[in-house]
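Support reply, case 0932

Customer input (verbatim):
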Amino acid sequence: MPELILGLDVGSTSTRSLVMDLSGHVHGRAIARLEATHPAPGRVEQDPREVWRRVEGTIGEALAAAGRKPSDLAAVGIAAQRSSIVVWD
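Our regenerated output:
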Protein backbone atom coordinates (compact mmCIF):
# COMPACT_ATOMS: atom_id res chain seq x y z
CA MET A 1 0.00 0.00 0.00
CA PRO A 2 1.35 3.49 -0.84
CA GLU A 3 2.64 5.40 2.16
CA LEU A 4 3.44 8.75 0.59
CA ILE A 5 1.38 11.93 0.76
CA LEU A 6 1.33 14.81 -1.69
CA GLY A 7 0.99 18.18 0.01
CA LEU A 8 -0.23 20.92 -2.30
CA ASP A 9 -0.29 24.59 -1.29
CA VAL A 10 -1.84 27.05 -3.75
CA GLY A 11 -1.17 30.53 -2.42
CA SER A 12 -1.47 34.03 -3.74
CA THR A 13 2.10 34.21 -5.06
CA SER A 14 3.12 30.60 -5.64
CA THR A 15 2.08 26.98 -5.74
CA ARG A 16 4.12 24.35 -3.90
CA SER A 17 4.06 20.57 -3.95
CA LEU A 18 5.72 18.25 -1.44
CA VAL A 19 5.97 14.48 -1.55
CA MET A 20 6.43 13.20 1.99
CA ASP A 21 6.19 10.01 3.98
CA LEU A 22 4.01 9.43 7.02
CA SER A 23 6.76 10.60 9.39
CA GLY A 24 6.94 13.96 7.58
CA HIS A 25 10.23 13.35 5.75
CA VAL A 26 10.15 15.25 2.44
CA HIS A 27 11.20 13.11 -0.55
CA GLY A 28 10.55 15.66 -3.31
CA ARG A 29 9.47 19.28 -3.62
CA ALA A 30 8.74 21.90 -6.26
CA ILE A 31 7.60 25.51 -6.32
CA ALA A 32 6.31 27.77 -9.10
CA ARG A 33 5.57 31.47 -8.95
CA LEU A 34 2.04 32.63 -9.78
CA GLU A 35 1.37 35.85 -11.65
CA ALA A 36 -1.42 38.21 -10.62
CA THR A 37 -3.06 41.30 -12.04
CA HIS A 38 -4.62 44.19 -10.13
CA PRO A 39 -7.61 45.39 -12.18
CA ALA A 40 -8.84 47.81 -9.51
CA PRO A 41 -7.82 48.96 -6.02
CA GLY A 42 -8.22 46.09 -3.57
CA ARG A 43 -8.73 43.49 -6.33
CA VAL A 44 -6.31 40.79 -7.36
CA GLU A 45 -6.96 38.33 -10.18
CA GLN A 46 -5.20 35.20 -11.38
CA ASP A 47 -5.83 33.14 -14.49
CA PRO A 48 -7.23 29.81 -13.19
CA ARG A 49 -5.85 27.95 -16.23
CA GLU A 50 -2.37 29.23 -15.43
CA VAL A 51 -2.80 28.30 -11.76
CA TRP A 52 -3.80 24.76 -12.82
CA ARG A 53 -0.80 24.49 -15.19
CA ARG A 54 1.51 25.50 -12.33
CA VAL A 55 -0.17 22.99 -9.99
CA GLU A 56 0.26 20.18 -12.52
CA GLY A 57 3.85 21.22 -13.13
CA THR A 58 4.85 21.28 -9.47
CA ILE A 59 3.18 17.92 -8.83
CA GLY A 60 5.14 16.37 -11.69
CA GLU A 61 8.39 17.98 -10.56
CA ALA A 62 7.95 16.91 -6.93
CA LEU A 63 7.15 13.34 -7.95
CA ALA A 64 10.16 13.26 -10.28
CA ALA A 65 12.43 14.65 -7.54
CA ALA A 66 11.20 11.86 -5.25
CA GLY A 67 11.63 9.25 -7.98
CA ARG A 68 7.97 8.33 -7.63
CA LYS A 69 4.78 8.17 -9.69
CA PRO A 70 1.17 9.14 -8.86
CA SER A 71 0.23 5.56 -7.95
CA ASP A 72 2.79 5.74 -5.10
CA LEU A 73 0.60 8.30 -3.31
CA ALA A 74 -1.85 7.31 -0.59
CA ALA A 75 -3.44 10.75 -0.26
CA VAL A 76 -3.34 14.38 -1.30
CA GLY A 77 -3.68 17.30 1.10
CA ILE A 78 -4.65 20.66 -0.40
CA ALA A 79 -4.38 24.13 1.09
CA ALA A 80 -5.71 26.97 -1.06
CA GLN A 81 -6.67 30.61 -0.84
CA ARG A 82 -9.89 30.98 1.08
CA SER A 83 -11.00 33.99 -0.93
CA SER A 84 -10.68 32.25 -4.29
CA ILE A 85 -13.55 30.75 -6.20
CA VAL A 86 -12.66 28.21 -8.88
CA VAL A 87 -14.32 24.85 -9.44
CA TRP A 88 -11.74 22.07 -9.84
CA ASP A 89 -12.87 18.79 -11.35
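We compared this against your earlier run and they match. Two observations from our side: Strands lie at 4-10, 14-21, 26-33, 73-80. The first strand starts at residue 4 and ends at 10. Please reopen the case if you see a mismatch on your end.
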